[in-house]
Amino acid sequence: MDNFTTISASGFCGESNDAVFVSLQPTAEIFVYSVRKRNFTSLPPFSHDLSRTAKYMSSSRSYLFVLDDAGAIHYRHNLRDGLSYFTNGSQPRRTSSEWATLSQIPTSNAISLAISNTSLWVITSEHKLYWMDVSQIETSDMNSWIEVDKPRGSESDKINQVRVSSTGKYVWIFVSQTGLCWARIDVSESHRQGRAWAQASSDVQISDLAVAENAVWCLSNNENELHRLRGLCLNNPAGHYWKPMRNCLKAISVDAFENRLWALDEENRIVKHEMQIYPPTCLPQANRLVSVSKASENYRTNDLMQEEKCSVDNLYKADELDRISLDPLQSWCLLSNSTEDHEEESEPVISTSCEENSLQELRYTSSLKPNSSSSYLYSSYLYL
């Protein structure tokens, strides 16, 4: 059975580049999943040593980086120009974009990496953090790397993971053993490596992170439960607290197209996060909405508008703003769980009719049902 271990969706930036990369164990193969065509094709091996396995992958608009189990960094360039060869349903052909090895790194071994459209971040086996401008990747030497200061404290000496958003404005580091994490402060166009660190909430011990332009997601250390950061903004990149999302996943990543969460679930399937919005007239009348106190009314309204980017005025009347639900409905739908050839299936259709059973049509294969606190705004995960 196919066993996906890592996923990178940050190279997915539009219809012309709709690739989501997954690695397969124990064969160390890397597959390109085409979101539009909904099929898999295999990339050529990233190393001549076929015993090497992909420990982690990170992608951007133009690059795919692979960190292997020996600490070597491999990459491909010009992905936008060459991806048509890998997502057309046929076997991939060789292009001008071949695998290359990033040999000029500060030490011989890397333990983590992250690539954005503007910067490359690497953590070495000595737990040191380095930064490089992407324009210098092809001609990099030792002088291209800039060492970045670490947070103060003994725990920061153990940092072993780095994550970055697609534009590079959010940078996070964490210690996978203890789950402590930090966000970079004052990242700007003129100072892309930032100026300081802010420690994030430690109420969740983090095992994995996915950083988008408008959200930060994490998996907990003990049960791989999904959480979302609340209060994220440029002035507060570390946010306030982690909100549990009641789902357990193996690995997570976000795309650069819609900042959408992609993941590998515990049943070895590729899943993605979706958000569905229903006007009040489409809700079952039997559902009771949870009231929110007047004191927290403005906070909840602003919270939804900022994080889900929807206009509350289009969904509610002025006297209905205090009826926003605290717990959105969670559901899942399948993307794919096999790299074997398959016929292209039609896209699922979500009903928007204003009938009482419209919410049931959203569930697909989910066993979760609408509860008494159902909201106008529904968060769901699609297995397409």
Automatic annotation (TrEMBL):
<protein>
    <submittedName>
        <fullName>Tectonin beta-propeller repeat-containing protein 2</fullName>
    </submittedName>
</protein>
<dbReference type="InterPro" id="IPR011044">
    <property type="entry name" value="Quino_amine_DH_bsu"/>
</dbReference>
